[in-house]
Design a protein that fits this description.
Elements lengths: L6 E6 L4 H9 L4 E4 L11 H11 L3 E4 L13 H22 L2 E7 L22 H15 L3 E7 L2 E2 L6 H11 L2 E5 L3 E2 L2 E2 H18 L2 H4 L1 E4 L6 E2 H15 L7 E5 L19 H7 L6 H11 L4
Parallel strand pairs: 1-2, 1-3, 3-4, 4-5, 5-10, 6-9, 7-12
Antiparallel strand pairs: 8-11
Length: 301
């Protein structure tokens, strides 16, 4: 095991919401290697293999992904190259190096049926190409024999990047009414909370020398639950408290059937995160609390 202070940590997707946060949260653990797409192209598994062999990391933190859910329906090969093939390569190379892989996955590996939070052992059944590619990535990583930590999450957002919250607050200032889906249930998850969780997990595993014993699949989503409409209402409510004179839209809930998309969305995105808390003593933030932090960070603009 490498000394914690000298760990070499390879982060993929550093320009994304979670990857950008990881650059900062992992820094205290060692040397963070954050390649550009030109240096390591996730759409080209050979590029991934070459870069890992050149840099020889102790941990590969896999935050990069193809996340265009609707576009994936017409770009299946690209989605699988990034979300499955390259993830499998990470596992193979990590196995050869004796390194570990921390990989982010999604609630889209499930079919969204039922009303109770999914546990890690529940049967999977993706509804579209995006979920299929992410599930294939999980299977490839687990099949590689590497020490792998897979964290399924949901509804990721933050103060930077393209995400639901930033878009909806822009519209809230421009429109009188917002029609938002109210029959999809889950929990918004702050990108920084996911990054902090990763740093905690890696530090815990290194300190306890327990990467093999603790490896596996975990769920890591914001605590509590809501709908997209409920998330929007809470965001606007908190914004009104910060800006009492602001003119903001009202929210009308609509069924998914009134907002058709190329790819089906799971109606139930609830994830039970008890295994994460039990293994690592980490509890994900309540979505309302994290929402307040994010609104404060970017000034609700």
């Amino acid at each position: 095991m490498a000394a914690q202070s000298s760990l070499r940590l390879l982060v993929t997707g550093a320009s994304g919401q979670v990857g950008g946060e990881l650059i900062h949260t992992l820094d205290p653990l060692g040397v963070v290697i954050a390649p550009t797409r030109a240096e390591m192209d996730l759409a080209n598994p050979a590029s991934v293999r070459d870069f890992i062999r050149q840099t020889r990391p102790d941990w590969i933190v896999s935050a990069g992904a193809y996340t265009a859910v609707d576009k994936a329906e017409s770009e299946r090969d690209l989605a699988f190259a990034i979300n499955a093939d390259s993830v499998g390569v990470m596992g193979e190379e990590a196995k050869a190096l004796g390194a570990s892989v921390l990989h982010y996955s999604t609630d889209y590996v499930f079919n969204g049926q039922g009303t109770t939070p999914y546990v890690e052992s529940d049967p999977t059944g993706p509804l579209g190409v995006y979920g299929e590619s992410k599930l294939a990535g999980e299977e490839a990583l687990l099949g590689s024999g590497a020490k792998a930590f897979i964290f399924r999450t949901s509804w990721v957002y933050g103060a930077t990047g393209k995400n639901f919250l930033r878009t909806i607050l822009k519209y809230a200032r421009e429109r009188e009414q917002l029609r938002i889906v109210n029959d999809q249930h889950g929990a918004p998850t702050w990108s920084r909370d996911l990054a902090r969780m990763a740093a905690h997990v890696i530090g815990h595993c290194e300190a306890a020398d327990a990467t093999t014993e603790l490896s596996g699949v975990y769920h890591a989503a914001g605590s509590g639950e809501t709908t997209w409409a409920g998330f929007t209402e809470e965001a606007i409510s908190q914004l009104r408290q910060r800006e009492p004179g602001a003119k903001l839209a009202t929210v009308t809930g609509i069924p998914t059937s009134e907002y058709p998309t190329p790819a089906a969305r799971p109606a139930n995105s609830r994830l039970n995160c008890g295994k994460l808390e039990g293994a690592f003593g980490w509890k994900m933030m309540d979505w309302r609390e994290s929402l307040g932090n994010v609104l404060e960070e970017f000034g609700a603009s």
